[in-house]
UniProtKB/TrEMBL annotation:
Its EC number is 2.5.1.19. The lineage of its organism: Bacteria, Pseudomonadati, Bacteroidota, Flavobacteriia, Flavobacteriales. It comes from Neptunitalea chrysea. It catalyses: 3-phosphoshikimate + phosphoenolpyruvate = 5-O-(1-carboxyvinyl)-3-phosphoshikimate + phosphate. This is 3-phosphoshikimate 1-carboxyvinyltransferase. Keywords: Amino-acid biosynthesis, Aromatic amino acid biosynthesis, Transferase.
């Protein structure tokens, strides 16, 4: 379904309630499966969290996690360590192009029995669950942090815990820190020093604990973009956020400060205000925050400023090749943009081509990153319901703000 999206006037009275972080949710769902004393509140309503829940509850011989990278990686570790399980873990056509060899090699070296159903190095996987007895593994850390998080989540259930040695420059490090912080919150001890991580085994059970998932910061990025592109004085309130977030994308507050948006925490809400139109070109390293690259690139285009974004080496293996998708779609709108395999360079320009239909490439973040641009120019967003991967209510929430969405 394609949506025609335009904005005459944004209403800033609404408070938007975004559901829990999909990253925190999928970690806690896995921990809850391993340690039933854990309770989780404010879980994400994203497709990725739904497939994770279904995968964990499944007793079928085939588990399909569609487009969900975290579910693919976390369930690979889960089934590998679950004695007696025998599953084919599969996903969407794109998931079959997203590499998983580093994780499979690491698990197999710990004693797992995982083989490739089609292509070496890629899903689908045949997984025979076994008791994993080894406790030391070395793996590359520069491709995806999800391989590391998957191992860490399983680690506390291994009889001797787990010691990881990471090779190469660690990418998306806040996601590893989030995993360790959640382990700590349920009472599991960990150590992270340089390129070495240790998770101590749980001898008995963890104490009963209820964790409340903070709302999703990656989803908040689209509101930062809307406020940045709106008139000075515009304001949006989002619930439920914490000042000391476990989510690396909370760095949005400092990135968008440079783009004229202030952030104030008021109790558990986040108040975003457009302070100024005086903004200059920006240069950001997004190695720690890959999921907000699309939002930032589109905001800069809408503001008429240039940007140099670096640390984008993981974008090619996400839901689509996000660097190429940004280049093609921003060029349609009139942008002068260049991408390499890890950087994006956008020149300042204030002209927007009209009547453009944005292709979304099965990537939720393509649809959501371009939506705020309707404040400047009406757009068609092709295959608009792709947003459900992380934020099923996105278009309903846009309507609350006054964005005109025509199916
Ligand atoms: O662990 C996680 O929850 C995630 C880690 C990141 O992936 P990479 O580590 O592959 O960059 C991020 O892009 C993804 O959306 C969620
Ligand atoms: C990259 C993403 O998700 P995943 O890797 O979990 O599919 C994302 O949500 O932007």
């Amino acid at each position: 379904m394609n949506y025609k999206v335009s904005t005459v006037h944004i209403f800033f009275k609404e408070t938007i309630n975004i559901t829990g972080s999909k990253s925190e949710t999928n970690r806690l769902l896995l921990l809850q499966a391993l340690f039933p004393a854990i309770q989780v509140e404010n879980i994400s309503n994203s497709d990725d969290a739904v497939v994770m829940q279904k995968g964990l509850a499944s007793d079928s011989s085939v588990v399909d996690i569609h487009h969900a990278g975290t579910a693919m990686r976390f369930l690979t570790a889960y089934f590998a360590g679950k004695e007696g399980s025998n599953v084919l873990l599969t996903g969407s056509a794109r998931m079959k192009e997203r590499p998983i060899k580093i994780l499979v090699d690491a698990l197999n070296s710990l004693g797992a029995e995982i083989t490739y159903a089609n292509t070496e190095g890629y899903p689908p996987l045949h997984i025979k669950g076994k008791k994993l007895t080894k406790s030391e593994v070395t793996l590359p850390a520069d491709i995806s942090s999800q391989y590391i998080s998957a191992l860490l989540l399983l680690a506390a259930r291994l009889e001797n815990g787990l010691e990881l040695t990471l090779i190469g420059k660690i990418t998306s490090i806040p996601y590893i820190e989030m995993t360790l912080a959640l382990l700590n919150e349920v009472g599991i001890k960990t150590k992270f020093e340089g390129n070495f991580i240790k998770v101590y085994p749980v001898k008995e059970e963890v104490e009963p604990t209820t964790l409340v998932v903070e709302s999703d910061w990656s989803s908040a990025s689209y509101y930062y973009s809307i406020v940045a592109l709106a008139e000075v004085g515009s304001q949006i309130t989002l619930t439920s956020y914490k000042q000391n977030s476990l989510q690396g994308d909370s760095a949005l507050a400092s990135f968008y400060k440079e783009m004229g948006v202030s952030t104030v925490f008021d109790a558990n809400t986040l108040v975003l205000t457009k302070e100024t139109d005086e903004v200059k070109n920006v240069a950001f390293d997004l190695t720690k925050t890959p999921d907000i690259a699309q939002t930032i690139a589109v905001t800069c285009f809408g503001l008429g400023i240039g940007c140099e974004l670096s640390g984008l080496h993981t974008l090619k293996i996400k839901e689509t090749d996000r660097l190429e998708a940004l280049r093609v779609e921003l060029t349609k709108l009139g942008a002068i943009i260049k991408v390499t395999d890890k950087e994006l360079f956008l020149q300042p320009s204030t002209h927007f081509n009209e009547n453009v239909a944005i292709d979304t490439y099965n990537d939720h973040r393509m649809a959501m990153a371009f939506a705020p641009l309707t404040i400047k120019v009406p757009l068609i967003i092709n295959d608009a319901m792709v947003v459900s991967k992380s934020y099923p209510d996105f278009w309903e929430d846009m309507k609350l703000l006054g964005v005109d969405v025509i199916v």
